[in-house]
Automatic annotation (TrEMBL):
Residue ranges occupied by any Reverse transcriptase zinc-binding domain in the UniProt entry: 28-112
Protein name according to UniProt: Reverse transcriptase zinc-binding domain-containing protein
Species of provenance: Solanum pinnatisectum
Domain of life: Eukaryota
InterPro entries (alphabetical): RVT-Znf
Length: 184
C-alpha cells in the first residue's frame, strides 16, 4: 500500500503535479488529473467501426482483432507452421488472408455487395484497405445508414467464426441464404 502511494507520488511529480502546483489549484478536479495522467495516444483511423457500435461485444472484439490483422487466418497460421493448406475454406481459390476472407472471397463479397445494394449504395466491393477507409468515412455521425453499415460490417465477422462449420460449409449453401439465416 505504502509502495503504491509512493509510486503515485512519483507519477504525479513526473506530470508536474508537485506540492507547489497542487497548492496553487483553487478547485481540485478529478477530470483534470485524469487528463494529465492519461497519455495522449494517436487515434486510430478505424475507431468509428468499433466504438459506439450497437453490435454484440463478440463481433466488436473479433473486428478489433481483424482491423489489426490479428485473426488466425490460414496464411498467418502457415507462417508459424500450424497449417498445411492455406486455401480459403469457403471458395478454395485463393489463400485465406484478411483481405480475401472479408472482401475478395466469392462468398463474403456477395454478402457485402447485397448489404451495399440494400442500402442503395452502388459500388463494387474493393480490397481490405480501401473498404476499411471507405467504411470509416461512411460511419461518421449517427445517421441510420451509418449505424446499419457499421452493424453489418461487424456481422461480416460471423463469416470468419463460422467458416468451415456445417452452417457455412464449402459451397453447401448460397451465400445470401446462409447470411439471412444467421441474421434472423
Ligand atoms: Zn474464399
Amino acid at each position: 500500500m505504502v509502495r503504491k502511494i509512493l509510486q503515485m507520488h512519483k507519477e504525479l511529480k513526473d506530470i508536474g503535479w508537485n506540492e507547489e502546483y497542487v497548492n496553487q489549484i483553487d478547485k481540485f478536479s478529478i477530470k483534470q488529473l485524469y487528463k494529465a495522467l492519461r497519455v495522449d495516444y494517436q487515434k486510430v483511423e478505424w475507431r468509428r467501426l468499433t466504438c459506439n457500435n450497437a453490435a454484440c461485444p463478440k463481433w466488436i472484439f473479433i473486428s478489433y482483432l481483424a482491423l489489426q490483422s490479428r485473426l488466425l487466418t490460414r496464411d498467418r497460421l502457415a507462417t508459424w507452421g500450424c497449417a498445411e493448406d492455406v486455401h480459403c475454406v469457403l471458395c478454395g481459390t485463393e489463400d485465406e488472408s484478411h483481405n480475401h476472407i472479408f472482401f475478395r472471397c466469392l462468398f463474403s463479397s456477395q454478402v457485402w455487395q447485397n448489404v451495399l445494394c440494400w442500402q442503395s449504395i452502388h459500388r463494387e466491393a474493393r480490397g481490405w484497405e480501401e473498404e476499411i477507409t471507405w467504411l470509416n468515412a461512411q460511419c461518421k455521425g449517427k445517421q441510420t445508414r451509418a449505424e446499419v453499415l457499421g452493424w453489418h460490417w461487424l456481422q461480416m465477422f460471423i463469416l470468419f467464426g463460422r467458416r468451415g462449420t456445417n452452417e457455412i460449409s464449402k459451397r453447401s449453401q448460397e451465400p445470401l441464404q446462409c447470411w439471412q439465416k444467421r441474421c434472423t
